[in-house]
Design goal:
With 356 residues, this protein is α/β, with parallel strands linked by helices. The protein has helices spanning 33-37, 44-51, 65-80, 104-112, 128-142, 165-168, 217-221, 231-253, 270-279, 291-294, 301-311, and strands at 2-3, 17-25, 30-32, 55-57, 89-93, 118-122, 148-155, 173-182, 188-192, 195-196, 204-205, 228-229, 262-265, 287-288, 320-327, 331-338. The longest helix is centred in the C-terminal third of the chain and has 23 residues, at 231-253. The structure holds oxa(dethia)-CoA. Residues 42, 46-47, 50-51, 126, 165-166, 169, 204, 231-232, 234-235, 238, 268-269, 272, 296, 326-327 line the site of oxa(dethia)-CoA.
């Protein structure tokens, strides 16, 4: 559990950090349930009932993760009214980098022209955004960076077997990005509860293509370069652990459930989101959902859902927002944020270290 300083515990060295802009990029191409009915033995009814998904977006073949990540980053910068030269750090969460190396963060740095920035990639699958948010926050909190871009982007269509009905109906492609800066009064990231349980590694993975099973004709023939999932086990783990982690974080921060304004869950399955919301006793109107139109976009799902909530004017300054995710690893990611609203003008020179 990482708890960031409160006003009762002032710190010279650590300052509170806020999300000051949110960007997203969704490819134009729609892959509908009707399209999938023509590809595998499935039905629109089964997909909607079991997952809540009606359609998802996918890129044209040959489009890399860095393209989605850069577009999302540029969207965030445009909304904030700053340029890429103002960025010190780029953290990219992805399981579908353009290539094993160099890191996608390096490609993004070049594509957006962030001349002063350094950066790195981080792999935590569907919790990737929450983990990257925790990492980026430390740099801004310590003053090592003034402005950090935290990006979640995945081209899930590049590792999906479109002959496997159990997985191909689930995933979509997208990029989402947030800008982190020193917080002003009454806003900021309050804390994280991020965890891993590596004993669940086999439940969700892409077996080949890494060092233990480098790609060969045989691995391709066995389709080991596609993601594989034991859906039911992951489902159960997600429901139990998302809610538990969120409750622990709320307790640690001294909040009750009914103080939560919005839950922004990783969008893996509408039934998981509903079950987590039920366990947290949050009514549907306080739960953000994009699963029906974007599917599961892995690291991109929380920032794109946040962008969607902002576009629908759901969030207001002062709201307590929870981010929650479970993903391959298995990973659990949770963050609590006192939402301050997006900043649209260039940063004022005055920021401070006090929180809400
Ligand atoms: O984001 C990272 C974390 N991932 C997740 O959180 C995913 C968690 N898991 C899930 O969301 C669900 O387990 C799935 C949506 C993947 C699957 O739903 P399920 O209710 O667990 O279905 P199931 O795998 O138990 O399959 C039930 C039946 C099976 O048929 P039989 O054996 O009962 O005859 C499957 O073969 O549904 C069949 N089935 C399908 N039928 C039509 C599986 N996929 C499909 C399909 N269309 N696409």
């Amino acid at each position: 559990m990482i708890q960031l300083p409160t006003p009762k515990e002032p710190s010279q060295a650590i300052r509170r950090v806020a999300i000051t802009a949110v960007g997203a990029y969704l490819p134009d191409r729609v892959l509908s349930n009707d399209d999938l009915e023509r590809m595998v033995d499935t039905s629109d009814e089964w997909i909607r009932e079991r997952t809540g998904i009606s359609e998802r977006r996918i890129v044209d073949k040959g489009t890399g993760c860095s393209f989605l990540a850069s577009r999302a980053a540029q969207d965030a910068l445009r909304r904030r009214g700053i340029t890429a030269d103002d960025i010190d750090l780029i953290v990219v969460a992805t399981v579908t980098p353009d290539m094993s190396f160099p890191a996608t963060a390096c490609l993004v740095q070049d594509q957006i022209g962030a001349s002063r920035a350094w950066g790195f990639d981080l792999s935590a699958a569907c919790s990737g955004f929450n983990f990257a948010l925790a990492a980026g926050t430390q740099f801004v909190a310590s003053g090592a960076a003034e402005r950090a871009l935290v990006i979640g982007a995945d081209v899930m269509s590049s590792i999906t077997d479109y002959e496997d009905r159990a997985t191909c109906i689930l995933f979509g492609d997208a990029g989402g990005a947030v800008l982190l800066e020193a917080a002003q009064d009454g806003e900021g990231i309050l804390g994280f509860n991020n965890q891993v349980d590596g004993s669940g590694c086999d439940l969700l993975k892409m077996p080949a293509g890494g060092s233990i099973r480098p790609p060969t004709h045989e691995t391709v023939e066995r389709k080991e370069h596609y993601l594989q999932q034991q859906g039911k086990a992951v489902f159960r783990f997600a429901v139990r652990n998302s809610a538990d982690a969120a409750e622990k974080l709320l307790a640690e921060l001294g909040f009750s459930r009914d103080e939560v304004s919005f839950l922004v869950c990783h969008q893996a399955n509408a039934r998981i989101i509903d079950a987590v919301a039920r366990r947290l006793q949050l009514p549907p109107e306080r739960v953000v959902k994009t699963i029906h139109k974007y599917g599961n976009t892995t690291a991109a799902s929380i920032p794109t859902a946040l962008r969607d909530a902002l576009d629908r004017a759901l969030l207001a300054p002062g709201d307590l927002v929870l981010f929650s995710s479970v993903g391959a690893g298995l990973t659990i990611g949770t963050a609590a944020i006192r939402w301050g609203g997006e900043r649209t003008a260039p940063a004022s020179a005055e920021t401070n270290s006090t929180g809400p």
